[in-house]
Amino acid sequence: MKPIKKLLSDGNSNAKTKKNSRPTKILYLHPSKIEGKEMCPFASEGCRMSCLNTAGLGGVYPSIQEARINKTRYYVTNKMAFYDQLQKEINNFAKRHDTDVAIRLNGTSDQPIVETLIIAQMRHIEPNVIFYDYTKNPKKAGVRLLPSGHKYIVTFSHSEKKDSLNNTLNVLNNGGISAVVFNKLPNEWNGYKVVDGDASDDLMIDLQPGTIIGLKAKGKAKKDTSGFVVQL
Question: What is the model's pLDDT at position 13?
Fold first, then answer.
């Protein structure tokens, strides 16, 4: 396998993340099963059908998909080297800025990368880094302070699964943030305030507890019939 030149993508390369209020880097892995490892173990059928992996340039250039597959193979088969490089890239980026920077390590995956980097391996990460992610795992969702002192904000992604509504409401009731895909954005849903999630990708870092990030159905999601997209 060829060496991976760069793991993290610049936030300015994405139409949504370039709106972020903080300098941002994102790790895009491939969301499928690679080398026997399921990269999105909690994904619903509707989520897979509407996956953002093929959104934007990812759905245009085969080379982007190939790069994501190669990064994922690197992650699965050579974890120590992967984390060595990831740590170096994050710290080099953070050192170039006097302000907080945002790092999203699950751009198109749902893995415990932050937990491994900070908690399991106790690697040094520059103090001006804030981590954020989306997840389908309700146990992972929430706003927490890692042992290193870094903030990690994880938004729960609502889906069409039978237990998803209960999980979504539980996360909100406990002061977390949930993301819901709508055919059109409401002002509130199930008694909780809805904000426009397309305003920026790092929006969750600044939200009040118990807020819903409303996302408008895009691409394949516009034709969703699974229930993944909430119809109003």
Answer: 79
Residue in 26, 32, 31 with CA at minimum distance from that of residue 13: 26
Measured CA to CA, the distance from residue 164 to residue 186 in angstroms comes to 19
| Segments of the chain scoring below 70 in pLDDT | 1-2, 44-62
Per-residue pLDDT, 29: 93
The predicted pLDDT at position 61 comes to: 57
Long-range contacts of 95-98 (CB under 8 A, 24+ apart): 95/126, 97/23, 97/128, 98/128
Domain ranges of the chain: 8-223
Q: Which of 149, 150, 109, 116 is nearest to 133 (CA)?
A: 109
The residue type found at 79 is K
DSSP state of 230: B
Residue 97 CA to residue 11 CA, distance in Å, equals 14
* E strand map for 8-108: 8-10, 24-27, 33-34, 37-38, 101-104
How far apart are alpha carbons 216 and 183 in whole angstroms?
6
| Cβ atoms of residues 128 and 97 within 8 Å | yes
Q: pLDDT for 205-226, tens place per residue?
A: 999 999 999 998 877 777 878 8
Look at residue 88 and give its three-state secondary structure: helix
Are 160 and 228 within 8 A, CB to CB? yes
3-state SS track over 127-142? CCEEEEEEECCCCCCE
Predicted pLDDT at 46: 57
